[in-house]
Amino acid sequence: MRRIADLAFSALIVLIAAPLYLLLDLAVVGRLGARELAALGVGTLVLAVLSTQLTFLTYGTTARSARRFGAGDRDGAVAEGVQATWIAVAAGMAIVAVGYGTAPWIMRALVPDPAVAADGAGWLRIAIFGVPLILVSMAGNGWMRGVQTTRPPVVMVVAGLSVATVLCVGLVHGGGPFPRLGLDGSAWANVVGQSITGLLFAGALWRERTDSDVDWRPHRAIIGAQLVMARDLIARSASFQMCFLSAAAVAARYSVAAVAAHQVALQVWEFLSLLLDSLAIAAQSLVGAALGGGSAAGARAVARRVTVVSVGTATVVAVLLAAGAGVLPRLFNSDPQVLGAIAVPWWFLIALLPIAGIVFALDGVLLGAGDAAFLRTATLAAALVAFLPLIWTSHFFGWGLAGIWSGLLAFMLVRLAAVGWRYRSGEWARVSTGRAGDHPAKGRGPAWHDGRYGNALGDQ
To answer: Which residues cross the membrane (predicted)?
Structure first.
């Protein structure tokens, strides 16, 4: 169990670091004025959408690296990180080239106010230069989770964001050695902080060169295999975005109080999702290693343990939210209409958490097993069959927030049925058999085998 805790804690710190920094950034820029705050909000939204669609660099790389690592093939695991980093650099440069030129158009399309759009475009044109190294960091997190390295990623992320925090406060408002750059100061702080983190991850990958036989050139076969998984994960991520954007659009048609209440409950949900996602990441790494080591039984043992921990954690949080139902929403808003409206999504949120504990854990298990195609299909089906029909039916019949959150509940229940069925089928627990020449380590084939799982589970 300690190995699960170590991996989950490391992943949680990395997951929450960026949102916490964003809160600071919003607070600092907010003192400049409403226009700058609005521009920053839209600019960070654009970057968030880009990064969300490219999370395959982390999750896909973790699954493939963990398989290699579990087979005793650390060189192969690192090779996956090398190839993912090549994808990150290429994709990042393409995004910079396209995004810099189209930033004004993107902002005008999203923001009707010309002044806010202009400020947002200026911020985005600076911040977008950090994207290549943001993507390198994502690939770095992927392969390091795969080889079950927990502490260095935390240090790298915290180091970069610590520098960004100091620069954000100094460059936005000026003082001491810092010039006053206003909103542009926020963008430069983002670039520097993300660049430091990305370079630290790149340095960690480079240091592996002294202890391994990994070929550092791009290899079409591995990149192609990674992009196949990327296709599935991008489609899955897009279905999430489609659902939550639809929910926000329908909530906006009711009242200002309904929108505010929906957003408060959704932000709490998204924060708690990070907690559960950290356990899913631990499952992904350990299951991939188990299957790579030839132990389907070990993978099933990890799946059971992580699911129990995830459901237990979700249940404890649900009890705390229920006990604080009359107090906690007041931390986010004091408007009586909003507080009256939030009761409905709040209790739906409480009911959803134990279900989410199972779904998130099994998502991690299946991702670790490389079952991304199944997860893509299951998530799209849940969105098209459950979430979206209920969302728009809610709008048509005027069911309000109860209808919207019923859609989310149905979405989770369909996913629960799908991943539960897949887990029980055992089709996901396929051990690695190995194929010669499958990774570039001076021409050697991988060390995948059908042997015992060995020590990858550590002291669980």
So the answer is: 7-32, 38-60, 81-103, 123-142, 154-175, 187-206, 243-265, 271-294, 306-326, 346-366, 373-392, 398-418
